[in-house]
């Protein structure tokens, strides 16, 4: 099974890019972030024509997450991260697909630091950590995939010194991510790529992609029942080079069948 995550940065504006990639890569499950579209503007018909059922949690102009499944409709299990009933941001959706519970998330950016946006990011991360711990207690196959807006280690950013006080690289955020891993989640890309520099995001500015001035901020965290089935993981960098594309590239894992 091939599972992918892709911050699409505006699903309707990037729909041709998304559909082309779906046709080429043929992932079984896809987590999308930054839809930037309300629920009624989600392109469900176009995705259905491409062979994918979907569940989504939209928001006008900002945020928005969705889960796609090839040849099936995901079974929605949660819309929104628990822990703050007043949080109206569309940043988390969860569904069951072929025996796997998939959580798709778009963690807040948090800039500028310091400030209220950074504090919101830390609160959201605390809620995620608490809920992730509850999920692990279920002892079922779970994938938490998406744009975490954090570079966990120095090797995950092209110039660590330059990013020290950015909300994506602040020590508080890195500790929060490490707290997730310490619960028992496996960072799929880092596990299979060792100390190799591997990026998932390149800014549109200053020729960042051509210079490979990238960041690894899109992650797969796997529960033990999925981690033991992990076969491969990578980034479809070529998609980032296309016209009218997102500033992120699709990231994917392959897992084997239950033995």
From TrEMBL:
User: InterPro entries recorded for this chain?
Assistant: AP_endonuc_1, AP_endonuclease_F1_BS, Endo/exonu/phosph_ase_sf, Endo/exonuclease/phosphatase, ExoIII-like
Which GO BP annotation is one of this protein's?
DNA repair
Q: Does the keyword Metal-binding apply?
A: yes
Q: Which UniProt keywords apply?
A: Hydrolase, Magnesium, Manganese, Metal-binding, Plasmid
Residues flagged as site, Important for catalytic activity: 218
User: Which sites bind Mg(2+)?
Assistant: 7, 34, 147, 149, 247-248
Q: How is the cofactor bound?
A: Probably binds two magnesium or manganese ions per subunit.
The cofactors it requires, by name, are: Mg(2+); Mn(2+)
Report the active site residues: 106, 147 (proton donor/acceptor), 248 (proton acceptor)
Specify the domain of life of the species encoding this protein.
Bacteria
The main enzyme category here is: hydrolase
User: What GO molecular functions are on record for this protein?
Assistant: DNA binding; double-stranded DNA 3'-5' DNA exonuclease activity; endonuclease activity; metal ion binding
Q: Which Pfam families match?
A: Exo_endo_phos (PF03372)
UniProt cross-references to CDD domains, sorted A to Z? ExoIII-like_AP-endo (cd09086)
Domain Endonuclease/exonuclease/phosphatase, which positions? 4-248
Residue numbers marked as site, Interaction with DNA substrate: 248
Q: Where is this site: Transition state stabilizer?
A: 149
EC number of the protein: 3.1.11.2
Q: Does the keyword Electron transport apply?
A: no
Q: Which family does it belong to?
A: Belongs to the DNA repair enzymes AP/ExoA family.
Stated name of the protein: Exodeoxyribonuclease III
Native species of this protein? Rhizobium grahamii
Taxonomic path = Bacteria, Pseudomonadati, Pseudomonadota, Alphaproteobacteria, Hyphomicrobiales
